[in-house]
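#struct-pred

JT: dropping the chains for the assembly here, can someone run the whole complex?
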Amino acid sequence: MVAKFAMDDDSVVVVIGSGAGGGTLANELAQKGVKVVCLEAGGRHEIQDFVNDEWKSFSQISWLDKRTTSGSWRVAKDFPNLPAWIVKAVGGSTVHWAGASLRFQEHEFKTRTTYGAVEGANLLDWPVTLAEMEPYYDKAEFKMGTTGTNGIPRLPGNNNYKVLAAGAKKLGYAEFHTGNMSINSKPRDGRGACQQIGFCFQGCKSGAKWSTLYTEIPKGEATGNLEVRPNSQVLKIEHDAKGKVNAVLYADATGAMHRQKARIVAVAGNSIESPRLLLNSASTMFPDGLANSSGQVGRNYMRHMTGSVYGLFDRPVHMYRGTTMAGIIRDESRFDPRRGFVGGYEMETLSLGVPFMAAFLDPGAWGRDFSSALDAYDHIAGMWLVGEDMPRETNRVTLHATEKDKFGLPIPNVNFDDHPNDIAMRTHAYGRGSAVYDAVGAVRTIHTPPYPSTHNLGTNRMSANARDGVVNKWGQAHDVKNLFVSDGSQFTSGASENPTLTIVALAIRQADYIADQMSKREI
Amino acid sequence: MRVLDKRTRFNRRNFLKTSAASVAAAGAVSGGMVSMTAMPAWAEGLTAIKPDAAKTLLVMVRDLYPHDRLGDAYYEKALASMDQEAAKDVTLAGQLNEGAVALDAAARKLRNTPYAAIKAEEDRVAVLKSIETTPFFRKVRGDMVVALYNQPEVWAKLGYEGASAEYGGYIHRGFDDLDWIKDA
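RK: done, full complex below.
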């Protein structure tokens, strides 16, 4: 029985966003008997609506509302209005995520201590340790059915993995396998096993990949405690005279405005919209934006050091067949400053179809150098490089000075400059990626620049001290105790791992905290 | 391992549709020379792009994304999609028609010949380089990289199989059939 709550019901927790953070938090709270209204800006597209077609899918599920970019990153030049490739739909970016589910390493929660002072970086230790997170990582992996945990076998390796693994072996790498993937390798939790369809980024047609769309959300709805409202774009969070949040203003699909009252508000709109919403919620009491006494809202935007390496071979690979990202080499994710940078990176299999290869291989390129690579499309193996980038105060999401969205609110601008550490790491990673493919006889390797950001992090970061960040170790705003941040924007640093598992683990942990605080009448 | 047959499958219908164009394609492949003295039928089917501009743009798009294995029909289809946009957008129509004229002017300046009549691909590329920063060039390049490579017929030529869910994925169709790496 799906719940329906009244707009003036001020006992509900309002969760903004239904992805890895919001969708998980909403279900976890609903399971505990807490009443939840989940407002999702995008529409509800179910599995049968997904299409195995890159551009069609892109227009179906992507967040395409206008954004601007600035800074020296190449995305600003190639995709000036598309800083991020994320989803606007029920399920959020768990609809298009690849499924890679890795725990952060102990030192990655303590970057300031481990790396020391890095010039031009705003490093800070997390107020949480790996030891504190471990029980929640356990719960997240069990919930998501992560392969390589809980006795769940890893996925079989596809052709793209075979090339990666053979190269890794020749180079003497020790830790490579088909990953810890939240994609069923056998039927589990009412969902089937992976059919090796490919198109993981376009919404999983078999439902083997974990997504809040068809796990957390229907489970939460089944409790009778969760109401999900799609096509509901939140414009402003409001507060009372004491500075506690008490309602959110949102627009429905027709553009009609509604005010949902709330006991607690949790923001999980991904790391561009979440800070934008806090900034757009400025008031007389909070002139710099909600929860922004530190001035850190929108700052420390991280997007991972990324890049791709494609290897062209004289024999066929057909990299697009099968699970997109079930393959990883982990040896370079260690902390080892002798390589010329702090932090580490993962090498993970990646494939794009012809339409996206053409668009992203080397944006702006033309001529034979470019087209000859596409001529070899079925002879290409591909990997994605994902590593820790440095938080910088100047890498930030701000409100555009003049441009407004259809509701009259300033659109977000994303400013980003690579830190020298990011550049050193990328150079190293390109070299090692090429070496992997050269070891198995690549005739040519191509270094592809970062795609629009899929991992958007850090713009409402956690800190032990209120002056250093936006939220505390529970994701609770330092300034407003019934306001929470529940997505990757609360990350203090980015680590080298794909972020979703940590977002989910934090959401499970946050739900425990919220329920506890509610029962104690603290919030 | 299961590989794809990339040869063009001729049937009477698509042969008739593409035969006029494939003469020009053969010219492009053999020496970069595209001889189109007569007005090709496909160019007359365009609404916003003028026939002379269409001839120039076709050669331009081939030079942007040269695939010797692809006949002109694929490039014409990509251009036709841009023509449809231009039919609804006067500014774009003007940009394309004027851009083609400007491209010819640049070609005359560098090689004393209209663009499509320059024989060597490298000479045409030099002309394109000279206009690379113009909005016209960027518009054609950006739109064509989508329109050319978003054609299922082109995917087949490049060895990409497109949608797979309706065929049951690749679990029984070669997701792991790579056989040239020992011990893989």
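JT: nice. The domain at 13-43+54-519 of chain A is CATH 3.50.50.60 (FAD/NAD(P)-binding domain). The mean pLDDT of chain A is 98.
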